Amino acid sequence: MGAPNGPLFEDCVFVFILSRTLPRSLAEESKSIVEENGGEVIPFDEDFDLPEITHIISDTVDFPQYSEARLQLKPVVTVTWITASLNKNKEASIRPFTPDPSMIFANVTITCEGLPTGDKDAIIGAVLAMGGMETSSLTKMTTHICALTVDGQKCQQAIGKRLKCKIVLPHWFDDCMKLGKRIDERPYILPDPEIFRSDPSDPIPMPSTDILSGASSSRPGALPMPTDSPIRKLTVFNNKIVTISGDLDISSRLRKVLEDLIVGGGGFVSKTVHESDMFVCHWREGREYVLASRMGLDVGNLSWLYHLIANNEWISPMRKLLHYPLPKNGIPGFKDFRITLSNYGGEARIYLENLVTAAGAEFTKSMKQDNTHLITARKSSEKCDAAMEWNIEMVNHLWIEESYAKCEVQNLTDPRYTHFPPRTNLGEIIGQTQFDRALLERKYFPRDPTPSPGDPKLVRRNIMREKDRNAPSSRRTDSDADMEDQDEEIRPKADLNKALSRKKSRPSFGQQVSTPASRRISGLSGGKENDTPSTGSRSAKDKANSRIHAAAPDIALYEKEKKRKGGVWGGERAASRIEKEKTLERSSSPANKHDEDDEDLSEDETRTPKRHKSGLPPVQIRLLTTGYKGWLGNLAKEEMDKKKLRDIGILVTTNPVTCTHVAAPAMVRTQKFLCALASGPTILTSDFIDTCIAKGKVPPEKDFLLQDQQNERKFGVKLKDAIGRAKANKRSLLRRVPIYCTADITNGPDTYKDIINANGGSFAIYTGRPFVKKTSPEEDDGPAEPVYLLSGQKPSEKLLWPKFTEMAKEGNMTPRIVDSEWLLDVALSQQNKWNQSYLAERKKG
């Protein structure tokens, strides 16, 4: 939000998602309010870059960028949030204004009166957890008073002042929480609640709802009237590329009509999913369905396509259960079920009939003793009485909806499925259940396809990156090429390519899921579509061979050392011993086993042709920051600035091993700086970051090279010379130098371990246990080499000094018990320097 004395919405960038509940007129009015208070509003009809947005105003979660907005922690709020913020003259809380339907108490501000303490705490806790707010006193913002009678002071005050808040029984909150849905509060309103006044078996009007309009069947009837008229032009397909599958079983005439509508609305039609935004099919199977789903396309059925045409408004195909392709063999476990309905009518009844059939069960209009389930909206009807008499399972519609959404039969012992509020027809909350993409992925398009029998078994599987949904595939399988040779797009190819170039990169789903490439499913991964496991195997073999060649001198030296008389010890020998002691730990630690690979997996890279399709420039600079104060205490600014830097080819990394540049305010001896220095990076001032962000481009590096003469004099090191030596050392300054460390050293052993490892040294913690075999100088004709112990001045550390000295001498070693200053000076200067002043015994305790 704005500064304390500045406009309320200063530095805020808003975007409005227009819908039937947020029309243009209301958005224009809210836009004027935002701009009057210092905010910026993106034009309604323009595409927007999510990283630039600070607030999304929407009355629905049905817009394409919603999932990515949640990942980036962008607030998505209803338009009433703006008014609430103005009333408070500060940023209002986000939770009460979320359009997320799972937050069932959003827009509820509750105050309680006359309730037992335990009940009050439980109700308030549930309201807060599900998007609502609580206030201890009655205010203009209060929407509900929870009470047992209207005799209390708050209730009398609300009645006397004719406030709009509703006085409800706690039973309403209880029933909402049991169902996990928000039901109508009217039967619970005091002073004369219907749940106490009426008999539960008395008739209830059938609820009317339009939530199932166009979503009650997976095979819709008549095509909606075209909306591409001068009065209401079809815009939902603007710059979208749609692929219509052959499994829809529609006539060529109807297909032509649909294609004309898409093209007339500014869209394109393609017969290959590689370059599409939307894929329309009927079944959850087949190569195209799997490929489209893994690419993160909007995958829906014909009913969903009709809904887009009829309403000219985008909706996620996962929002409505019958808008998503059907499982061809139903849901496991439903085959032997015979299900009937009661107390549902209109679209709700049609919807449940189709849902039962789609799940694989048999639907019956009448009920007999061989029925297995009765789905009812109330626990009052002839069928309900018969179900209890014949011992037939009686559940509400949440059971069939959630079984279908979760792709497995849900347990009937869950009280949510057998709860029936006394004066509520549960048809009013039908159609609110949605799909969870993660569940669908595990069941129908898993990211880890089984490799071919002849494929080698990989120790670490290659990453499968998401395909950029906006760009056509640059590499295809032979079968893809054959298919595309026969394609005839409705629009000319040139126009299609223009659309592809105009489109922005879309969010990917299920990022960084490991999978081996597969010959049988080549082209389904988000990386190189024709890669096979053998490619990854060759790459691994190449790396292994290069490491063996690099290690050849050491191997030869080791073979020579083995011929010595007596034990093998001394600089190289001690290092080998330390390495041998730590091998098991390193090999069993995933974090250490693949440090270099992990960097590739965790950060935005440009090493494969795939990454060039993301719309981001190749990474030119891998920047590590240390001591930079611009992001302290402001995580949101840090994330936004990092995205801006990435947009100009700068990747901010935390791995000192792979960084190419370091930004620091001065020459410092921090762990990150010293670890990074071992790689010989370009070291810049922190102003480089601010300039890149402000100008939106990379300035000349020479203008920002770190110059710090004061610290150079202080540490006795020329930074330019140190960087030159680091490049020559190639991270092997301390190679074959054994360095031990006490467990109680200041700053902890891990701090020094990282610096030692970054410079190729061998590290171990010394606890006083023997670390060498007793060897006499006569048995070892090699020169005595130094072995180091980093130590502070604590009594527990000093107790180790005599043991370390004795054991080092027994191994024909020169013991050096040093202060940590020795390591810091060595790492900073990139020289293996030594003088007696580093000895710990010379330091004052």
UniProtKB/TrEMBL annotation:
Residues 194-224, 444-548, 563-616 are annotated as: Disordered. GO terms for biological process: DNA double-strand break attachment to nuclear envelope; double-strand break repair. It comes from the Eukaryota. It comes from Mollisia scopiformis (Conifer needle endophyte fungus). This is BRCT domain-containing protein. Residues 210-219, 508-517 have a biased composition (Polar residues). It holds the Pfam family RTT107_BRCT_5. Residues 463-479, 574-585 have a biased composition (Basic and acidic residues). CDD domains: BRCT_BRC1_like_rpt2 (cd18436), BRCT_BRC1_like_rpt3 (cd18437), BRCT_BRC1_like_rpt4 (cd18438), BRCT_BRC1_like_rpt5 (cd17743), BRCT_BRC1_like_rpt6 (cd18439). SUPFAM superfamilies: BRCT domain. GO terms for cellular component: Cul8-RING ubiquitin ligase complex; nucleus. Residues 4-99, 100-190, 232-322, 334-417 form the BRCT domain.
